Amino acid sequence: MSARATTRPGGRSARVQQSVHQAVRDLEAEVGRDALTVPLIAARAGVTPSTVYRRWGDLRELLSDVAVERLRPDTAPADHGGLRADLEAWAAQFAEEMSSTAGRTYIRDALLGDPGQGNAVRCSDYAVEQLKAIGVRAAGRGEAVPDVETLLDVLVAPLMYRILFRPSDLSTVYTDHLVAAALGRGPATPQTKS
Amino acid sequence: MSARATTRPGGRSARVQQSVHQAVRDLEAEVGRDALTVPLIAARAGVTPSTVYRRWGDLRELLSDVAVERLRPDTAPADHGGLRADLEAWAAQFAEEMSSTAGRTYIRDALLGDPGQGNAVRCSDYAVEQLKAIGVRAAGRGEAVPDVETLLDVLVAPLMYRILFRPSDLSTVYTDHLVAAALGRGPATPQTKS
């Protein structure tokens, strides 16, 4: 879920998106996000400001798109040989990345510049795709797999709720507990968090 | 969680807050939120714009404060004679109010104008207070009560996650299922949503 190059097949539209996204990432690192403006980004990307406004509406929507790209997982979830181990590793990594300063900023950007909720749904779909990949692998081993909506409710939702609404200890004690609950073996919340 | 008059004991500071919040609510109804500006709000509230900027920083932070006030529950949770019934009624009402157009707007405002997360925590605390009140009542009847952190994870978090990230059917089929899961009687997610 780190920054990744956006490489898409041809066309001017794809090239504009790539150069504008890259300009946002570069300028954010160079001048900080509070100094970002559409004219500054457009100049760096080699397009006109009106190109940016036509395509993204405003800076906030552009930042939302860039944030969602950054939240996109780089790789398939690691294979640790079993469903529980795979879910524990995935949940620990998800918690760590999403609760980092950068992760929180991207989540807020993704939600905030997104009145139609399309980018929020994309964030959720990234988690779904990863959890499905883990599930397919586990089913191939003959393991029983909770459906993905249950995993969203039991594993992903508490992490996102606590990141957004309630400062909490999201250590592996907590994420392992959530995985245990998802696998039907740990209904009670441990008392070590928040 | 509907609009409520903010009545607090004396002081100029409390009066300024009350008149500025009221001006936001009135103007939002009259001219729509996209037309709100700090000078417009200040003029209606009978204060100077600099008073608003000094106290709230900017429009977004003011809207965040107003949103949190609107998300504050008006009343104690209704007493339906048992823990399950109380939680089912509370969850159904929470889902209905938070997923309404107004509820979604207030949640977004509360989260997004709030870099320090204080208002998000207040939203979460409102839920905690209501769930604790239900729990105290149930304990008084001799019922076993899940701890409030479990109720946040199992009941509140999935509702907020789906409202923010994933359009879903939040009907009582779903909220009753979450309550059953919280009470340890329904681990699987029903297949009727999203």
Automatic annotation (TrEMBL), chains A, B:
Residues 37-56 bind DNA. It comes from the Bacteria. PROSITE patterns: HTH_TETR_2 (PS50977). GO terms for molecular function: DNA-binding transcription factor activity; transcription cis-regulatory region binding. Pfam families: TetR_C_11 (PF16859), TetR_N (PF00440). Residues 14-74 form the HTH tetR-type domain. Keywords: DNA-binding, Transcription, Transcription regulation. The keyword DNA-binding applies. SUPFAM superfamilies: Homeodomain-like, Tetracyclin repressor-like, C-terminal domain. PANTHER family: HTH-TYPE TRANSCRIPTIONAL REGULATOR RUTR, TETR-FAMILY TRANSCRIPTIONAL REGULATOR. This is TetR family transcriptional regulator. It comes from Streptomyces roseus.
